[in-house]
Each structure stands twice: as structure tokens, then as C-alpha cells.
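Is this the right way to post C-alpha cells for a design question? Let me know if I should format differently. Anyway, here goes:
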């Protein structure tokens, strides 16, 4: 008796199983750079880090489901960037590069539920990717110069489907957590806003008829706590260094000068000829940041010179502030 034996080879085609693994890694510090005190007070300064401590690699076959989560909880022993004199610069942390997704300190923020993980493509491909964070300082911080810093603690915990099978069935979940630290730094530089009106002597037929300009002021609002000096250059046409200033019209000159307060001491640009912040007539002392310090001066045309030909005489004097 003979028979026929038939062998069947069966092939079962299964969709690929994707696995993504996440871990907590060392962060890249946030550096706002060096910013003037005026800019810190008047304009929100941006900062960011491309690595806030969560790194993932792998591939998902679909977008994250409603039961997938990536939480970050940010805490600190400070309330913002702390400076050398105890001043604090406040700032907000954002989950993307706009102001649409602010994080609240001490409250878990779910990057998955806000679509940010999907937008980042964090789980696509085989190259590890990290979660960025974005920062913006709070307007209105009137602070002294110096380096401001804060160390944030970031607790990451996640729970998501790391493997998908036939029909989209989840074959496994990646559930883990970890804590990392993130340093934030900003350096505040000394700066001033200066209000210095032009000096106008008017017109006169002879030098002896020019009336001295009195009651003039220069207003400075300089960095909080800064000690500084204010200098006035000798202009573009001085007789010699530290000598008389001169206005010019064509090839002709008209000598004049600027004096401290209401007196006869020349206001210059070097050494004792400068004026210290402690010498201000209004609010003497170190800078106030938001308040002005006022320096009085007077100016006159020298009457011991020969009257030059008629014309419009001009000069430019540079005001400089030294810290």
C-alpha cells in the first residue's frame, strides 16, 4: 500500500514590533547670556536648553494614546534666579518655543497630553532625542549687576506603550522615572538710560553778549547699586587736552565750556574732572535702577576771546558713564 505524503510550510507574517526606551540623562544648562540691567527690567529675555534630562530612542507606529504619559515636575529651593546681592529675577518655563505651554513649579506637566512629544518626534527613529525646555524672564526685575543662577530639580516619570502588535495591540509598556538637575544662569551688566538735552547759547552780535546757560540737567537711571562716574569729552575742537572747548563754523572757532553744578569747575572726562554718582544733586549715591539721578551744570561762552565772524557754530560733546 502506497500513499502520498504532503508537507505544508506555513508562514505567519506579523507586523514589526517597535520598542522605545527612555531614560533620565544629564542636562545641558540654560544660559541667557549677558544682558543689560535695563533690558532685564523692560524686556522678557529668552533662554532654552535642548536637553532637559529626558532622552528616548525607538519608533512608534502611531501617535501616543490617551493612556500614554510623559510627566515632568520642576522644583527648586529658590523662587527664581538669585544674584550676589540677594535680588531675584523671576522667569517662566515653557514646554515649547512659544508662551502657549507654561509649566507650574511643583505641578506635574504632561508632555504627551499637550501633543509636544508627538511634535518632537521623540520616539521616532533610532537616534536618541532629548526634550527641550524654553524660558522667558519676567519683566520688571530691577536688579543689581552680577551673575544670577538657579538649580532646578526635574522629576521625570513616564508610562507609554513601547511595543505595538497586530491590530494596534500594545505588547508592552515602558514605565520608569528619574530625577535630574538643570542649572539656569544669567549675567546682568551695568547700564544706564541717559537724558541730556542740547545746549543752545542763542545768538549775539559779540561774544560778551552771550548769556550763560544755567539750570541745565543731565538725568541718569543706572543699574541698581552701581557706583559710577560721568564724564564729558572735550568736544571735537578743543584748544588742547583738558583745555577750552570750541564750537566751529568753517575755519572759525568760538570757545565755550561746561561747568559742574552752578559753579566754575570745568566738567571733563578724566580723573577729578569727572563727576561721581555720589555727587548728583538729586538722589546722590549708587544707581537706583528705576529712578533718575540728576546732575546740574552750566555753560558759557568765554568773553575773553575775539568775536569771530558771523555763522552757526557747532560742537559735539560725548557723555560717558564709567562703572
Amino acid at each position: 500500500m502506497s500513499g502520498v505524503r504532503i508537507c505544508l510550510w506555513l508562514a505567519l507574517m506579523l507586523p514589526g514590533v517597535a520598542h522605545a526606551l527612555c531614560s533620565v540623562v544629564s542636562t545641558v544648562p540654560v544660559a541667557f547670556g549677558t544682558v543689560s540691567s535695563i533690558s532685564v527690567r523692560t524686556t522678557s529675555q529668552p533662554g532654552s536648553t535642548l536637553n532637559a534630562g529626558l532622552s528616548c530612542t525607538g519608533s512608534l507606529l502611531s501617535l501616543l494614546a490617551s493612556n500614554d504619559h510623559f510627566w515632568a515636575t520642576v522644583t527648586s529651593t529658590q523662587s527664581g534666579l538669585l544674584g550676589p546681592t540677594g535680588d531675584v529675577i523671576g522667569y517662566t518655563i515653557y514646554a515649547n518655543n512659544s508662551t502657549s505651554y507654561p509649566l507650574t513649579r511643583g505641578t506635574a506637566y504632561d508632555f504627551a497630553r499637550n501633543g509636544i512629544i508627538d511634535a518632537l518626534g521623540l520616539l521616532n527613529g533610532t537616534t536618541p532625542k532629548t526634550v527641550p525646555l524654553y524660558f522667558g524672564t519676567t519683566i520688571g526685575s530691577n536688579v543689581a549687576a552680577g551673575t544670577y543662577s538657579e538649580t532646578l530639580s526635574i522629576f521625570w516619570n513616564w508610562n507609554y506603550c513601547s511595543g505595538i502588535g497586530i491590530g494596534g495591540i500594545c505588547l508592552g509598556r515602558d514605565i520608569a522615572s528619574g530625577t535630574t538637575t538643570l542649572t539656569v544662569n544669567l549675567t546682568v551688566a551695568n547700564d544706564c538710560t541717559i537724558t541730556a538735552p542740547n545746549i543752545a547759547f542763542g545768538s549775539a552780535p559779540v561774544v560778551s553778549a552771550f548769556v550763560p546757560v544755567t539750570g541745565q540737567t543731565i538725568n541718569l537711571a543706572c543699574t541698581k547699586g552701581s557706583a559710577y562716574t560721568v564724564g564729558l569729552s572735550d568736544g571735537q575742537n578743543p584748544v588742547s587736552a583738558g583745555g577750552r572747548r570750541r564750537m566751529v563754523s568753517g575755519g572759525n572757532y568760538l570757545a565755550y565750556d561746561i561747568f559742574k553744578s552752578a559753579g566754575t569747575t570745568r566738567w571733563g572726562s578724566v580723573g577729578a574732572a569727572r563727576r561721581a554718582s555720589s555727587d548728583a544733586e538729586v538722589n546722590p549715591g549708587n544707581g537706583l535702577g528705576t529712578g533718575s539721578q540728576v546732575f546740574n551744570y552750566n555753560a558759557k561762552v568765554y568773553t575773553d576771546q575775539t568775536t569771530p565772524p558771523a555763522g552757526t557754530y557747532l560742537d559735539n560733546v560725548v557723555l560717558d558713564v564709567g562703572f
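Format looks fine. Someone answered above. Worth noting: Residues 1-19 have pLDDT under 50 and may be disordered. DSSP finds two helices and 22 strands in the chain.
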